[in-house]
Structure formats: C-alpha cells, structure tokens
What does this fold into?
Amino acid sequence: MLELQRATHATLQVLAAELVDLDLTASEINALANLADGRPRTVSELGAAAGTRPTTLTSVLDRLERRGHITRGTRAGDRRSVLIELTPTGRLTADTIHKTLTDLEHRAIGELPPEAVAGFHAVLRALTEVSP
It folds into this structure.
C-alpha cells in the first residue's frame, strides 16, 4: 500500500508539471478527467467516480464553473438532482487531461506484459471496491 501511495504522489507531480499551463489543482484535474467521456453526472456520481465527498467536490465545481469548464443544471424529471456537464472549453481541457493521462500510462506501463497490466488493473479495481 505504501508503494501505491508513492506512485500516486509521483503521478500527481508528473501531471502537475505536464498540465501546468492549465492552471488547475489536482482536484480540478481529477474532476475533469472523470467527465472526459462527455457523460453528464450528478454531484454524487462524480464524487464517487473521483473518490471525493460531494461536500468537498462543491468547491471544486464552483471553481470549474467560474472558469467556464462546467455547467450545473437539473435532470429532466428531477429538479432536485444537480447535473454536471462540460462546456466546450471544459471539453477541450478534459481532452487534454485525458490525453496526458493516457500518455503517462503508456510511458509507465506500456512495456509491461499484458498479463501484468491486467493484474495491475485488477488490483486497482479491488482497492476501489473496498473503499467506503
């Protein structure tokens, strides 16, 4: 588990350096990365995907909305549910983040045998599922 924590911090440092021109925090990068597929999400769904409590996510979403990366609206038929969507600017930024993450993954584990990569992904899924 200590190695996972070290890898997480090293990954965040690389991402911060490679995405410095976007002027985003790690939490903002995480939120946009989880929206990069273009699918709108509720705050709860995004919080679960990003591993962030909805109350903590609110300030991240406030900043992203002020910068024009996201919009918050309501879901048809459920006005109580807040739906987060990327704006065109947010889509471009999320695409940049996604490409950077994909490139980093290829540099880090691209030379490993497929079974090792599959095992790595299985461990990550297991750790995600055990989290509260």
